[in-house]
Every structure is written in structure tokens, then in C-alpha cells.
Amino acid sequence: MDVELIALGFLMSGPKTGYQLRTITKKVLPFYPISLNQIYPMLRKLEKAGYVEKDVVPQQGRPDKNVFRLTRSGRERFLNKLVGDPVPLDHGLPFTERAYFFRFLEPARVIEAFEEEVRALELQLAEVERGREGIRAKVDEHGLFSFDTAGVVIRALLDWYRGELAKRKQGLENQ
Q1: Domain boundary at 16, 47, 82, which?
Q2: What's the longest Cα–Cα distance across the chain?
Q3: Which end of the chain has fewer beta carbons closer than 10 Å to its terminal beta carbon, N or C?
């Protein structure tokens, strides 16, 4: 996940606090989890580089609010990131990382692990499908494409994992 791209992109529509950036991201990119612990360091880095400027807004009885806005060089940076060189796919799927070491488990436990992962993916897919209609009013066709990509990836993983689960069950039955 490119936190810099996300921060710059949402700042294109106007100044925002770090909290607002996280709130917007959760609403329109719910499958790209981003935390305040990622946003604020990135905003400080962007400020130091001259891509954003910070306005401090005093609040009565509360800490001052830091509102960030893009500079001209920040807009240029964002637009260049949009059309930059392709970035290699991050293949980091925690389940596949664990699966590499399944040889240390009993076959029945491997099947349980696959079944648990399939159930988790089914829940995620249901969440994507429920959220699609709500997201439609909040994003344009490009945002919808990004959102739908999560569903496509989850469906592909489900198909693959179900096939692998079936092979492993068949292998266990044949023992």
C-alpha cells in the first residue's frame, strides 16, 4: 500500500487532517487498511519534502488541529506517481507464507487451516459485496474499479484455496 499516494490523492480535493484522511480511506478503500500511525509520519515526511504545508488551527479546550494542504510540488509529485513505472505486485499473503511450512503439521490440521482461511475469505467477500452498493455514491468509476479489484482478488483466492483444499482432503482419504 502506497501511503504517500493515498495521502496526496485525498489532499488533491482540499486540505484535511490526518484523522480525516484515515476516515475517508476507511470509507472508500476499506480493504486497504491504513492507520494513523502510518498517516502522520507520512504527512511529516511530505511536509519536510515540501509536498504539503501544515496549518495549525487552534481549538478551545482541545489540542490544536493540524490541517494539511498540497503545495504545487505536492500536486506534481502526486500526478507523477499516478503515471509512474509499474510497481511489482506485493505477493505478501500471510496464509501462503504460513502454508509454506505446513509440512510440519499433521494433514488433518492442514485441512483445518485451509477451511479456516476459506471461511475468512468468504466473510471478506460478503463484506465487499455488501459494501459495493454503498460505495457507489461515494466514488467515480476509477474508485469503483479499485474497490471491485478487492472482490476479484478474493474470488480468485477462494477458487484456488478451495481447489487446494479438495486435493488435500482427497489425499487424506486415500491414506
Answers
A1: 82
A2: 72
A3: C
- CA distances from residue 25 to 9, 108, 122, 165 in whole angstroms, order as listed: 11, 40, 23, 34
CATH code at position 78: 1.10.10.10
- Which H or E run includes 67? strand 62-70
- H/E stretch holding 147 reads helix 141-173
CB 53: neighbour CB atoms within 10 A?
14
Whole-model pTM: value is 0.71
Co-location of 103 and 65 in the same domain: no
Whether residue 50 is found in the same domain as residue 118: no
Number of domains present in the structure of the chain: 2
* Confidence class for position 120, pLDDT limits 50, 70, 90: very high
